[in-house]
Amino acid sequence: MHRSWPFVGRREELALVRATLRDPRVSGLVLAGEAGVGKSRLVREAVQELDERRYAAQVLLAGRAVADVPFGAVAYLLPAQLADVDPRLNVHRWVADQLVATAGERRLVLAVDDAHHLDLATAAVVAQLARSSAAFVLATVRNSEPAPEPVTALWKDEVVERADIDALNRDEIGRVLEAALRGPVEKGTRERLAALCQGNVLLLREVVIAAEESGALTDEHGIWRWSGTVAVTPRLVELVTNRIGSLDDEERHALEVAAFGEPLGVDIAAKLAGLELAERLEDKGLIVVGPDRRRTNVRLAHPLYGEVVRAGCPVLRARRIQQQLAEAVESTGARRRGDVLRVCVWRLESRTASDPDRLLAAGRQAWAAHDIGLACRIGRAALDAGGGVSAALLLSEVLNWAEQYEEAESVLSSVATQPMTDQQRMDYVTGRVQNLSFGLQRLAEADALLAVEQTKISDPAIRRQMSSYVANHRFWAGDCAEALCRSQELIKQPAVTPAAEATVWADAALSLSHSGRSDDAIAAIRRADETSEAWIHDLPLVRLILDTARHYANLFAGRLAEAERAASDVYQGTWDMAVAASELQYAHVARFRGQIHQAAHRSRAGAALGAWPSFLLRSACLGELAHATALGGNAADASKFLAQADELWSPALRPFQYWVDLARPWVSAAAGRIDEAISLALRIAASARRRGFVGIEVLALHDVVRLGEADLVTRRLSTLEAHGQLVRICAEHARAGEGPALDRVSKRFEELGMILHAAEASAQAATAHRYTRDQQRATMRALALAGRCDGARTPALRALHPPNLTKREREVAQLAATGFTTTAIADRLVLSPRTVENHLHRVFAKLHITSRAQLKDILPD
């Protein structure tokens, strides 16, 4: 860990210091904010960048230790002894003169950190120097503490400016983290740290240092990721305790109740700690009381207060408080949905959990919230408490998604011979088949189990649900056509329950999205969403399937903005599977846009998640990483990533395996093996066609077009045109053998936001326009588009022969293409208008064009 953190996220504030220093109308700037937001660091950075030829900076040492000592903050700058002291000496004037004398001919800058701790004598001197303009005062004060009257009078009288320094926002926290750790930070880690530290850089630094030292924050395959709990170190305790301040025993007890109970209804807080004590804590700024729907809740004023208070509470007292919290909320009926889960956690922590039904209800809520660790813990407790088959089914499902496959199999095997209802039988079969196939890779055993066990279910409604699962199973096994056929049959049958109906529509949407029927998939998703309030809390996987289907339906249709929004909806910060799926989907969108660096970053982040090596989506993420890397022309690294993806190949997730397969042609192409790349793309297309994955087939067929052999796939792409606008453009690309047609295709791809595809079409147009005036125009357009693709080096782009424009000619041409007048270009580049016109004439001659309007086609914005 780099103990001296980089200075990030305060550019505007530093610019304000510079501007104020140059303003002759003011004599200083006071930076006000809460402790730890970065005021002191801002002052240090501002002082360090001062021009020593013009300014002399002196730092005043304010602090509690010298707050009552006259001139304590400035004593070290004064002579050790006074000679020939005149009893009539104006001490304040003498101290001021001594400080000014240290600057010589330069302007004195007084840097006063924590000016609210200045002794009155020093505060008076500082104010005197500011009012007389003998010094520029750069000071910090804490919002929550009163400053000496001479200091506050400075900004009230407008002698100095005052600026409030806010906590850093989430984006700024992300930049601070990546600069401090010298590498990218996983999204969930950034969000968790930002929420925990509330934009306070001092606290952030301590939490990060503690997390790295404890092993909770690690660099996993190039991405920093935090897992586990907050490491409460002595240094963090000291910082937080100082913020909390001194408390008597009653106040500390009230704070502990809030720490274990938040958010806690004010009535419960009053019952367990006393309303008067709650008021005292609110007055001290330690708790916040506010409305939450129909309740008034108590929360701690900062998340880290809770971490430190809970860590410091003795074990038996912590258990007693949590038992009291559970009993208090239960006495009110635990009416809110979240109450069931909170009471369960308190019962577990206080060793008083014994009701299996309540544990099961809480476990289902934890699973619905994607809190995998807590759901596993509750599931085990429910099984131990006698929850029987229901507890085993819940626990095994969560264990499966937690990648603890052997334990999940053991739990399911333990109840295999116990009596079950039809619903339990279906849950047992689906859970075990999923665990055997996805987790343990025993597909034959899973298929045999499914064939036998589904015949034991007699209830027609549950048999329909079982059939829906079979359709889903066939999809993931790689038979999209059969899955879609089964789903369509089920859709025709009458609805039973909203949950069962949503499951059918979700499975149908997944198959439809990959079958090239994007609009039908979106319609199916809407049907499921119509009843979402009835099932959303009980079927967390259905929501994930629907959002995944929505992403792929839009991706295969070329609707990239909608596909990106769906990827955002897939993200669930506490569940690695959903986070990885989201990162993979973001990577797809980025690559389609030609943002190959972003695609590589997203896919690398997805590959860093989950347990190694079993994590289900790691292979697909590594395949996407190989794809993006190959598009950048790095054949060696792309081959390495592809090999890693192949090592983790899972036959149970065939649809995701296609994203690995789609990388293969481009890895070969990056190595110069174009014929091999084309052969691989054709094989992928044939496989996808046999299995009904029309979306994948179209991408593979179009890869052949991009690699220069459109004639091989023109007929097949033309037969698929009815499957959406992206397919139509791909088919047009295959048919476009001449330059003008390729120019039109390029513009169509650009309209979709598929910039790399547009660049490649323009590059092919340049070849088709050979020996004509349009060749240079198409070449320049291809180069300009490729310039937006992070240095992509595909075969089509490598074949370009750039026109011989100088750097200055390119600058002038680009500005002219975006609408700048000759005068505006001259002002921007500090040239004469005549020189600009001369450059443009040479550009027109080299590109064989005659007007600025033609430049816009060649050099798009």
UniProtKB/TrEMBL annotation:
<keyword id="KW-0804">Transcription</keyword>
<dbReference type="InterPro" id="IPR041664">
    <property type="entry name" value="AAA_16"/>
</dbReference>
<feature type="domain" description="HTH luxR-type">
    <location>
        <begin position="798"/>
        <end position="861"/>
    </location>
</feature>
<keyword id="KW-0238">DNA-binding</keyword>
<dbReference type="GO" id="GO:0003677">
    <property type="term" value="F:DNA binding"/>
</dbReference>
<dbReference type="Pfam" id="PF13191">
    <property type="entry name" value="AAA_16"/>
</dbReference>
<dbReference type="GO" id="GO:0006355">
    <property type="term" value="P:regulation of DNA-templated transcription"/>
</dbReference>
<dbReference type="InterPro" id="IPR016032">
    <property type="entry name" value="Sig_transdc_resp-reg_C-effctor"/>
</dbReference>
<dbReference type="Pfam" id="PF00196">
    <property type="entry name" value="GerE"/>
</dbReference>
<dbReference type="InterPro" id="IPR036388">
    <property type="entry name" value="WH-like_DNA-bd_sf"/>
</dbReference>
<dbReference type="InterPro" id="IPR000792">
    <property type="entry name" value="Tscrpt_reg_LuxR_C"/>
</dbReference>
<keyword id="KW-0805">Transcription regulation</keyword>
<protein>
    <submittedName>
        <fullName>ATP-, maltotriose-and DNA-dependent transcriptional regulator MalT</fullName>
    </submittedName>
</protein>
<dbReference type="InterPro" id="IPR027417">
    <property type="entry name" value="P-loop_NTPase"/>
</dbReference>
